[in-house]
Write a structure and sequence with these properties.
186 residues, alpha+beta, 4-stranded antiparallel β-sheet, 24% strand
């Protein structure tokens, strides 16, 4: 059985390697002192800042890598110069003057609508409803049949008073595809 490297070791190696790539770019400043970003920064990298493999600033592409750079390199601790420790420049025009507008809070839950449990047994549908709210609820049971030739059913509206309980039933000739109850104010 082959031993696997742990995730912590992999993350450590990855962070050390990425840090080695970022440090030369952090010191990419022209003699005038202004900060460069993007491709201009890559062209200003000093040869001494790269490490064991020396790359000329003008060299670009596959010819830029010397054969010595293909050998395993020894990772040495990086020394940051004071110029590399300066804070990053922030464009204040990109920051909005005010925070974004918050969406309005959702409306308070309305106290209406009986609680219904729908049970499908073969071709028979039964909905048992209980109205726990202070308003009368008009209920309708809707049944959608699975077969194309089987007629779907919608019951007539039935009034359910407050604290009332009712059982609504309907059926299809064969299988039932779905069933649901709709609520309406009187």
């Amino acid at each position: 059985m082959r031993a696997r490297r742990s995730r912590a070791v992999s993350l450590l190696v990855t962070s050390v390697v990425l840090t080695g790539f970022l440090i030369p770019g952090a010191d990419a400043r022209p003699e005038g002192g202004e900060v460069l970003t993007g491709p201009e920064a890559a062209a200003v990298v000093e040869p001494a800042a790269v490490g064991p493999a020396v790359v000329e600033p003008a060299a670009v592409g596959p010819a830029a890598v010397e054969p010595a750079a293909l050998e395993p390199a020894v990772l040495e601790p990086a020394v940051l110069e004071p110029a590399a420790l300066e804070p990053a420049a922030v464009d204040l025009d990109e920051i909005p003057a005010e925070p974004p507008v918050r969406p309005p809070p959702p409306a308070a839950r309305e106290l209406f609508g009986a609680d219904c449990d729908t049970v499908i047994e073969g071709s028979q549908v039964t909905a048992t409803c209980l109205n726990a709210y202070p308003e009368t609820d008009l209920l309708r049971l809707h049944v959608e049949c699975d077969r194309w030739w089987d007629v779907d059913a919608d019951s007539a509206a039935v009034a359910l008073p407050p604290a009332g309980r009712i059982e609504l039933t309907s059926r299809c000739w064969k299988e039932v595809r779905s069933a649901w109850v709709t609520h309406q104010r009187p």
